[in-house]
Amino acid sequence: MTLDRRNFIKLLGGASTVAMAGVASVASAAVAAGSASEVMPKGKQRRVVVIGGGYGGTIAAKYVRMLDSTIEVVMIERNKQYVSCPFSNYYIGGLMKDLSPLTISYDKLAKNHGIKMVYADVTAIDPAAKTVTMGDGKTISYDRLIVSPGVDFRTEEIEGYNDQTSLLMPHAWKAGEQTILLRKQLEAMADGGNVIISMPLVPYRCPPGPYERASLIANYLKTNKPKSKVMLLDANADVVAKKPLFTKAWNTYYKDNMVYIPGKKVTKVDAATKTVTVEGIEDFKGDVVNFIPPQRAGRIAVAAGLVGPDKNWCPVDTVSFESKIHKDIHVIGDSAAAGAMPKSGYSANTEAKVCATNLVALMNGKETVDLSTLNVCYSAISDHESISVAFVYKVIDGKIAAVPNSGGISPVDFSTTQHEHIYAESWLKNILTEMST
Amino acid sequence: MMKWSKRILVSGVLAFSANAYAMPPTPEMLTFGCLGCHGGAGSAGPSMPTLANQSKEAIVDAMKKFKSGERPATVMGRVAKAYTDEEFALMGDFFSKQKFHVTSQTLKKADIKKGAELAKKNCSRCHMENGKEGKDEAPVMASQWLPYLQIQMELYSTEKRKMPEKMADKVKKLSKEELDAILTFYANVK
Ligand SMILES: Cc1cc2nc3c(=O)[nH]c(=O)nc-3n(C[C@H](O)[C@H](O)[C@H](O)COP(=O)(O)OP(=O)(O)OC[C@H]3O[C@@H](n4cnc5c(N)ncnc54)[C@H](O)[C@@H]3O)c2cc1C
User: Fold this and answer.
1) Predicted local confidence at residue A156, as pLDDT
2) Is the ipTM of this complex over 0.95?
């Protein structure tokens, strides 16, 4: 029998209140002694720990508390503030003056829903002991764990990539310092300079993201540096998202400022000379190079052995997003292999809600509910036009798949692009509000 | 109920038995996915429409018209096609039970005053209680985000969205400025 506070008190039977107070402190000391490094020793209350306070983690934490307030929720996030990748291309393209519209903190969310925030880096997960270890060696135990750490970069596959590379060739694929750095480089570039964007093979975070970025950089160059060009080197054989729409935008607006070259997988970089090398032979040199490395699940998910045979993404159950490898650990967001769902913020948001719903059902021995999720991604193609892709998902033949005969991309005649641009800005406000309140 | 005890070992990886039964989507499961755009307790604006406290009839009517294509949309047409009429009813239940969401928008004072009178005269038969109620499938417009209402009025005026005949009779007699004033009045109702 584990010696927790209630058991201890029960053992003592009819102790007086004065004696009880003493007993309680003895009991908690006994618990702490069980594991010297444990912070927030778990009482009788069931506990869900969430790793990552991004698009997936915030919503999962919030919805678990909303659906069952008797469950304690601890969210562990390494940063005090979160900067949204969605709409960071606006900033890079000069359409947003600072990152404040993209930045949220966790105080209101924690207060409104009674979520316990811990600001720390999780370095290990022990699925057998059901604990997570943080950078300082302290541990926190859980009944169920939700992991939403976003992506990590497979830089070891790129020859010449080292700790300094992203300081000279920013990826800007995690928002914040990197976003600002890329913008600064674009501003500092002389008119006539060339920008290279190198993007990886699918799957990676935000399929339309690199195409949106190329469009908004071209838009910036067109008015500010008309002699400059942006060249998009796509590792894929063709445009992988919203193809007819992006192609039309490039042909219509950016013929003079943008070049799209498919089938160019960069395997080597030289940050000092701002050179990227395709398949070991063909060199491209730019004045500004935005090198977006290939990706995999967030480092902690890989370290915890949550990735599948592909070694990159985490296989999950389609009901509660529980890992197919470790019991009581759920993986959502970019790190999860969620069938046909793309790795987007909106996907992470709706996966989190399904995960929370069915995790709470499982913890309470209640019936689970069939998954219904949704993804909509807006991309700006200029300073006043946006396009979108939308799909609703359910489980078909055991896999998460788009509902047939629905969804799709915006009309190719661009009849809705201006209204979509207006709605897109409201999308950002609403989803960040949902995450932070 | 799901049983996790039936664990089996497949190719060295712990595989859990797929759950035999899960319930069909509940109103919550169906609508949680809408809230990233429409807001958890009303839209934070400035243009995505609030659905909180919208009437069930209005939600179902809108979703059916999005699905059939009768009502023009940027994104809702593509979304609505994925659901059944029964699911629309569950969504309507969910949103109609949410609390009325008061927005705070920067609006022209003169328009609010002018709009109040024009709304009373022309629109209040169906957009009742200052837009807090709607007759039949007429939506709640009180506190709705103005840019959304303006886009919808633009769609009506250009005949992309079809107006109920009796609404058209009124709307056609009003100038763009007058209509704008009416919408501003509704947006301001707390
Ligand atoms: C340029 C760009 C544009 C995009 N545009 C869109 C868009 O328009 N729409 C859209 O839907 N999506 C968009 N995305 C995709 C979106 O950003 C991601 O899909 C989304 O952030 C995934 O959510 P997540 O919860 O998996 O990870 P994240 O949102 O990245 O959150 C992960 C969090 O976990 C924390 N963390 C990670 N590891 C640890 C650890 N070990 N310990 C403690 N904390 C940890 C991180 O600090 C971070 O806060 C875009 C992405 C990019 C790069």
Assistant:
1) 97
2) no
